[in-house]
Amino acid sequence: xxVLVVEDEQLLADAVATGLRREAMxxxxxxxxxxxxxxxxxNDYDVVVLDRDLPLVHGDDVCRRIVELxxxxxxxxxxxxxxxxxxxxxxxxxxDDYLPKPFAxxxxxxxxxxxxxxxxxxxxxxLERAGIKLDPNRREVFRDGKEVQLAPKEFAVLEVxxxxxxxxxxxxxxxxxxxxxNTDPFTNVVRVTVMxxxxxxxxxxxxxxxxxxxxxx
Length: 217
Known about the structure:
Mean pLDDT: 89
CATH architecture of the largest domain: 3-Layer(aba) Sandwich
CATH superfamily of the largest domain: Response regulator
Helix content: 40-55%
Low-confidence stretches: none
Strand order of the largest sheet: 2-1-3-4-5
């Protein structure tokens, strides 16, 4: 899952991004509304965590722009105000969910994951394929009933492949979904991660390389 965090309080923004990355999400961070508009014009995001009171361009206008573009991106709006009228207004603008500050980080994670599931064809909470069971909420992976310990990026790559339901996923798509924009697009990080993931999942191999196209399970 790829997430954009838009928050002008830099310490909070960076803390949220760090926490989401620990949950195997690819996260980009910006600190004002103008930068947010620039990012959504370039990258495809599953979820935008959007502070409402932003400098340069207000969060409401960023949300309206996402709606106008007809993007599948879901918006979780943050605000320091917990008034019902503010929550209603935010939802009417086009936000998909609303979370007042201060918030419990566990709730933020749950809401981001719930919104992420709504950006594509609905899938069951626990993904199963080729003897592999992946639970995104618990961050657990089992193969033939035996738990497999994965690093965050390995988990993210496996989740993208599982969600594709047998379709081929290119290296570029994996890079876009599992890594943030600071990753060198010419790096071999995808190939290395897939190799490590294959080894950890054991025999027989379940991740198939499709020459010239990508990978599938």
